[in-house]
Known about the structure:
The structure is a single chain. By secondary structure, the protein is α+β, with helices and mostly antiparallel strands. The chain has two domains: about 5-110, Immunoglobulin-like, CATH 2.60.40.3120; about 115-375, Zn peptidases (Aminopeptidase), CATH 3.40.630.10. Helix content is about 25%, strand content about 25%. The protein has eight helices and 17 strands. It has helices at about 115-130, 175-185, 190-200, 210-215, 240-250, 280-300, 320-330, 355-375; strands at about 5, 15, 25, 40-45, 50-55, 75, 80-85, 90, 95-100, 105-110, 130-140, 145-150, 160-165, 200-205, 255-265, 270, 330-340. The strands form three sheets. Strands 11-12-14-13-15-17-16 form a seven-stranded mixed beta sheet, sandwiched between helices. It has a five-stranded antiparallel beta sheet with strand order 1-4-10-6-7, with no helix packed on it. Helix 2 (about 175-185) packs across helix 8 (about 355-375), helix 3 crosses helix 8 and helix 6 crosses helix 8.
Amino acid sequence: MIRxxxxxDSGAIEVLECVDPANIRLNLRADTAAxxxxxxxxxxxxxxxxxxxxxxxxxxxxxxxxxxxxYRVVASYDRVTWFRxxxxxxxxxxxxxxVTPDFDSMYFAxxxxxxxxxxxxxxxxxxxxxxxxVSDLGPTVQGRDLNLVTVGRPGPDKxxxxxxxxxHPGETMAAFFxxxxxxxxxxTSDPVSRRxxxxxxxxVVPNMNPDGSVLGNLRTNAAGANLNRAWQxxxxxxxxxxxxxxxxxxxxxxxxxxxxxxDESLPYVFADGCSMLPDFPGEVLEAERRFCRxxxxxxxxFQSVHGYAPDRFSDELLTLASKWVxxxxxxxxxxxxxxxxxxxxxxxxxxxxxxxxSRHLGAATLLALLDSLDA
Length: 375
């Protein structure tokens, strides 16, 4: 008998029909307290050697229906090694994909999951590092810890760099990015990391949305709040995560801010800055351009041709983290986006955009950060 389950960390799916392996009908589950739907993570059992056809019947009603064009499901047998299935079929309403499992259990996800356990292990490595400390900013809506990793020490001649990830919990590539960045910062034999820490104290929030991550949400926390639309006036009850982080920023100041995300539709790595803010300082806009040039030199995965239109967020500018930070601190402040699909400029036919590439990009970003600090 075949079975589909999702009662585990970040699990999310609704089963409509699961009797015939050639006609497994599913619905994408909405976030726990909001209408966003796109993330999925579930386990298929009992279908070894059987040709399975699985469909998301409501894919056309998802938050980003364009994201299904050319999309390849991420799959694993052991939850350690993840790989891409062939491109599925999307007719504007349903997304259908096919697979013949080699083993009795097979896992599927929108992108490689980043578990709460992995979060805790990363914090443990931070605590063990001679250059880092871990502090708690306060509880989330459901009482989980909101942790801050401080790498290096503040000083009168040092800049303050902030990096936050996973405001949108389904964008797990952001967590892998931060893992790569932190692992390099922890390496005291790496000359780039040492030079960065000579010039700056780096404040990192590896997971801004622990509740949404565990619940299997795409964009919101446990109260249904989209954290990246809460920065202008965060609510202590609905978006305490933003209130805590913003409050600490006001204490430390911000010279450089990076908000790490994933984009469902665009198959590129790109940054979105603050050029659309009125009367934004020209020298900071030049610092944005310099950072992007340096990141493109550090990683061929990054590019500056494709990205968001300047007026994309015109009605909600200062509710976004990078725009609020840029406006308030007059600082270099960027949203960095990675694809859910693949990088069209440097495609990988087996893995697409992956956790490994996200980690490499995070590590490479230190070179661009150093260039900005030197400037």
